[in-house]
Recover the amino acids of this structure.
């Protein structure tokens, strides 16, 4: 084997190795991102209570994603695109809140849509407590945690069928939200 | 425009807040634009709290994202004589269109 042949084979081997590595890296990234970019729970179609303000909202369809405790969480289609909604579980199809994000959801940069209700009781401070924890999360999110201002976990809520909810919440200030995967690895933190 | 110091000067809960007059409101609707810009995921740099308030407390949902939101007082565990509100919470000034219905 000539020196030139050896060099050609070495370069070819290097190129193959780089290409194989790229595939592995790409697959790894893709497999990590995909669960954070989809919501597999399609729910089941329900009729939204009509004759209300939502009739002018342009709502086309609603699917019930889950009932958790006293709450029902919906996936909605409107004239303007997909939305998420929630309402009281004892009145199926009654929406009380709707969030229509413009842009991709979920993504690895935004795997959680937080519908939680926060409360302030002081005019002078921006401290807020959690009145109710509720929201929708991507497939890859196994739990979410609400953090104290010092970073400790105040409340951890499991995500099931892309929905999380907790009617009973701890008192005291809340300053952020973190999403974890099934192994407890942090995936995302609210801004 | 809703940013630090923005006020409707009608006694809202927070200093940097716009709020309606008192009423038996049914719905608060807020549309947040991309102002002053959105990232690839349509997040702006401005975080707002939108919802309702009474004389004892203020409640609402947070967002930093471009989009439309609607919330009824009952969703926040509130009712009766209220103000609809949107508060600047952090970050850049937000551009919003907001209306309450009663």
């Amino acid at each position: 084997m000539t020196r030139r042949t050896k060099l050609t084979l070495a370069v070819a081997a290097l190129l193959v190795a780089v290409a194989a590595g790229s595939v592995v890296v790409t697959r790894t990234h893709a497999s990590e991102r995909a669960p954070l970019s989809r919501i597999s729970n399609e729910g089941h179609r329900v009729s939204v209570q009509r004759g209300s303000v939502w009739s002018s909202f342009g709502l086309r369809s609603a699917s019930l994603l889950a009932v958790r405790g006293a709450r029902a969480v919906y996936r909605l289609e409107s004239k303007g695109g997909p939305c998420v909604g929630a309402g009281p579980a004892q009145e199926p199809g009654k929406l009380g809140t709707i969030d229509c994000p413009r842009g991709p959801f979920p993504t690895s940069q935004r795997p959680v849509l937080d519908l939680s209700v926060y409360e302030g009781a002081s005019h002078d401070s921006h401290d807020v407590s959690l009145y109710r924890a509720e929201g929708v999360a991507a497939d890859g999110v196994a739990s979410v945690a609400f953090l104290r201002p010092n970073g400790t976990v105040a409340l951890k809520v499991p995500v099931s069928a892309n929905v999380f909810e907790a009617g009973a919440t701890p008192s005291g200030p809340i300053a952020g939200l973190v999403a974890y995967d099934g192994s407890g690895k942090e995936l995302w933190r609210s801004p | 425009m809703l940013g630090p110091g923005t006020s409707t000067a009608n006694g809202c809960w927070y200093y940097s807040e716009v709020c309606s007059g008192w009423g038996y409101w049914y719905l608060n609707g807020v549309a947040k634009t991309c102002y002053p810009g959105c990232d690839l995921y349509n997040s702006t740099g401005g975080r707002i709290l939108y919802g309702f308030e009474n004389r004892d407390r203020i409640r609402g949902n947070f967002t930093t994202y471009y989009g439309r939101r609607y919330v009824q007082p009952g969703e926040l565990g509130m009712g009766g004589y209220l103000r609809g509100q949107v508060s600047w919470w952090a970050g850049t000034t937000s551009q919003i269109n907001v209306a309450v219905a009663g």
Observations:
- Residues 43 and 65 of chain B are 4 Å apart (CA to CA).
- Chain B touches chain A at residues 13-14, 26-27, 38-43, 47, 49, 51, 56-72, 74-77, 89, 91, 101 (CB under 8 Å).
- Chain B has no helices and seven strands.
- Residues 17-101 of chain B form one domain.
